[in-house]
Amino acid sequence: MIMHNRFFAYFLLVLLFFISNQNVVAQTRFSEYSAHHHNNMPYRLYQPVEIEVGETYPLVLFFHGAGSRGSDNELHLTHFGNKIPKSQYNCFVLAPQCAKDTKWVDTDWTASSHQIPSEPSAALCTALAILDSLIEVLPIDESRIYVTGLSMGGFATWDLIARYPKKFAAAVAVCGGADLKTAGQITHLPIWIFHGALDRVVNVNRSRDMAKALEKAGAKQFFYSELPDVYHNAWEYAYSLEAMYAWLFAQKKP
Length: 254
Known about the structure:
This protein has one domain (5-250): 3-Layer(aba) Sandwich (Rossmann fold), CATH 3.40.50. The two termini are 21 Å apart. The protein is α/β, with parallel strands linked by helices and 254 residues long. It is built from six helices and eight strands; from the N terminus they run H-E-E-E-E-H-E-H-E-E-H-E-H-H. Helix 4 links the parallel strand 7 and strand 8. Helix 1 packs across helix 6 (242-250). Strands 1-2-4-3-5-6-7-8 form an eight-stranded mixed beta sheet, with helices on both faces. Residues 3-30 have low confidence and may be disordered. The longest helix is centred in the middle third of the chain and has 16 residues, at 122-137.
């Protein structure tokens, strides 16, 4: 089912329901992002100040875009780090940083289509290794691990859920692109796709075509939001949309 902006009123109702559900939402204080490194990859980790013994918490894995590559361990938080309403959602956030001149997915972002590489990139492997290492030592709810990314990170989001379709509870792909042949592998997964109709960096057809491929494959739990007056900065809208977070944190693997 492909949905556009006129349906957002529905998600506002979802938001009200979500806020009223005290079992899902916790009013809590959060720490600052802490800086870490793993195999020379810098990453930031955000976690609650107080964690109750015996409780587990969802985790959001965020992949930045090409303009945030580097080693400063700060730039990659620009478009997402402060977007989640942190007084409302009790979660971990993992934000790895891709090195300069490398990619999350080894493909041409300007191409009209691409085939998923036979192996994940070294950067994507390291990011996944960081995630797995955190799962081992932190109280992370493995039934509520979410992945999102913008632009180059949108490609990473599609690539990762295609390779590990049972690892994540939901995905938000912003102005990225996917291998259309992978649609059949992720029909079970709740996905929200955002793309600006005027995007001149990653053509909007990349998201349009994947939405059609998902629909054709029988997917029932995805939404496609094409923003009519937006260029490549679709993340400014997607990551500021409270209803998106309400929907995201409501998802849980069976």
